[in-house]
From TrEMBL:
Domain Helicase ATP-binding: 6-249
Domain Helicase C-terminal: 352-512
Protein name (Swiss-Prot/TrEMBL): RNA helicase
Class of this enzyme: hydrolase
Organism placement in taxonomy: Eukaryota, Fungi, Dikarya, Basidiomycota, Agaricomycotina
Length: 512
């Protein structure tokens, strides 16, 4: 995939990229962008002024910092490394680093690659439109595009759904989302030309078929590259036919080569689904007040934890602070947590803590629902004896080491670490030392639909990256009134999600 992606980007093509989680899409994008020429006019060279070449839009700050750290490591390989800020910068908005810091650095120096979250980029654009140099950009990349641009499935809706779909459409029109708004600004001229060309659809199709140039030429504008492991047809159709952002004469669609890992997962129904990593085990634990059990129909798994290799994470063991030394929860919050009701189901939290203690050799990730309070979960898990930390790749002392750890993880760490994130901050993350991902609850709330399946694909895709092994353990609530055949039972919903992804559940041995 990278062998096709990198040349396409260097040739200035628009690209629609889809391949499995962990196949190297983001890494390939970064490699290609770093290798793009940095254009400067003669006048600007005299003033030693350079342009921003590429703008990369990502869904959350952790992914922005991950890409920055990758670039930092690559740039530092040379003996005379240029300052990182001249190569890459990050624009994100959060409590810790106010946007102003990023803005000031950007005003001082233009990076080759600017990586940011949509809202931070929009804020800068609104306050200082010139700083982003949108007129001279050479590339715009939208990573995890289906998370950033919402589109509605265009399937023929049954009557009962019709009103709901109309309502969703109106909502989307009223709130198109920041990424759409940004792309509408960047590609305003392309949109005009595409709209004019669309006035003569028959002629346009014939022209393209014959490879003839259009009488309404495309204005110079940056190439657009969009990428995700889950690029559904309705989004592709939207991008291609409705958005007006693409230069249709110059688009390449790249999807995985179909090259599969050594083995493949055989789903319960005997079908083999392409692209599933066989060395990843998927388990579902049903938790009620009385018991914890594996989802019915789970196959017997390998008895031991998949070994990730012999290499140590940066040669460190037990590098994280111990539970008692934990210093990153505000005492005021601890006071509040100990006196208010928890939003979490205690049996589910205990199950996560027990499964973690029994099976995780070094580092695992717990993914909570999008708006769940992370710090509260960290505190509750620490109360259960787990060395839990909110995922923070930039400010926390250990954050970077999780990114930097090489392809293998240690066999065991004296004090295993559980990183806690939410669905909103998990996409695209690449922490090579992870052996387990725990998912708290159904991936997208109570509904099983395309969005829930895609969410599962992305969460579970934090392990099994680049062919490595791993375990994905979903912990869901089982109500007393539910039976195994109950369609609305959480277990049955998880089973449907696994079937849609094309994997069969495997027993989590500790609860078998
Ligand atoms: N050419 C390569 N050679 C060796 N390792 C690579 C190569 N490309 C990517 N990797 C490694 O593979 C892992 C996954 O890469 P990356 O995060 O780019 O995948 P992705 O396809 O973007 O995943 P996701 O869909 O989850 O965002 C990373 O650890 C990366 O360093």
């Amino acid at each position: 995939m990278q062998a096709r992606l990198i040349p396409a980007i260097l040739e200035g093509k628009d690209v629609l990229l889809k391949d499995r989680t962990g196949s190297g899409k983001s890494f390939g994008l970064v490699l290609a962008l770093l290798n793009k020429p940095r254009l400067v006019s003669k006048d600007e060279r005299r003033q030693n002024k350079r342009h921003i070449t590429s703008l990369v839009i990502v869904p959350h700050r952790e992914l922005a910092y991950q890409l920055l750290h990758w670039i930092e490591r690559m740039v530092n390989v040379g003996e005379h490394a240029p300052p990182l800020s001249s190569i890459a910068q990050v624009l994100v908005r959060d409590g810790r680093m106010h946007l102003d810091t990023g803005l000031q650095t950007l005003q001082k120096e233009s990076p080759h690659v600017l990586i940011g979250t949509p809202q931070a980029i929009m804020d800068v654009y609104e306050a200082h439109p010139k700083v982003l140099q949108l007129d001279t950009l050479s590339s715009v990349v939208v990573d995890e595009v289906d998370y950033l641009i919402e589109t509605l499935a265009r399937k023929d809706p049954g009557k009962s759904f019709k009103r709901a779909i109309e309502k969703a459409k109106r909502k989307l029109q009223a709130h198109p989302g920041t990424t759409r708004q940004l792309l509408d600004v960047i590609y305003a001229r392309r949109r005009e030309v595409n709209a004019r060309r669309q006035d003569e659809p028959g002629l346009e199709i014939a022209r393209r078929r014959n490879g003839q140039p259009s009488s309404t030429p495309m204005p110079p504008s940056p190439q657009l590259v969009v990428s995700s492991a889950t690029l559904r047809t309705h989004l592709r159709n939207y991008l291609y036919d409705e958005s007006g952002w693409l230069d249709k004469d110059n688009v390449v669609k790249i999807s995985g080569t179909g090259a599969k890992p050594a083995e493949e997962v055989q789903a319960n129904d005997g079908t083999r689904k392409e692209g599933q990593n066989a060395s990843v085990e998927h388990s579902v634990l049903l938790v009620s007040e009385q018991r914890v059990r594996n989802i019915p129909g789970s196959a017997t798994g390998a008895s031991s934890v998949p070994s990730l290799g012999e290499e140590a994470v940066n040669g460190e063991t037990g590098a994280c602070k111990s539970v008692n030394e934990a210093d990153d929860i505000d005492p005021g919050l601890i006071q509040k947590y100990s006196t208010t009701a928890s939003p979490y189901n205690p049996s589910m939290m205990e199950t996560v803590a027990a499964a973690f203690a029994l099976d995780v050799p070094s580092i695992a990730l717990l993914v909570l629902p999008s708006s769940a309070p992370v710090q509260r979960a960290v505190w509750e898990l620490r109360e259960l004896g787990v060395d839990a930390h909110g995922l923070d790749l930039e400010s926390s002392a250990n954050g970077r080491s999780y990114l930097a750890s090489g392809g293998g993880a240690e066999t065991s760490r004296a004090n295993p670490v559980l990183l806690v994130s939410t669905l909103a901050t998990t996409r695209g993350l690449d922490l090579p030392a992870l052996s387990h991902v725990f998912i708290y609850g159904l991936p997208e709330g109570d509904r099983v639909n395309g969005k829930a399946v895609d969410a599962y694909v992305h969460i579970s895709g934090r392990v099994g990256r680049f062919g490595r092994p791993g375990k994905v353990v979903s912990v869901v609530e089982e109500k007393e009134s539910e039976s195994d055949s109950d369609e609305s039972a959480s277990g049955e919903k998880m089973a449907r999600i696994l079937r849609a992804v094309g994997v069969g559940p495997v027993q989590f041995a500790a609860f078998a």
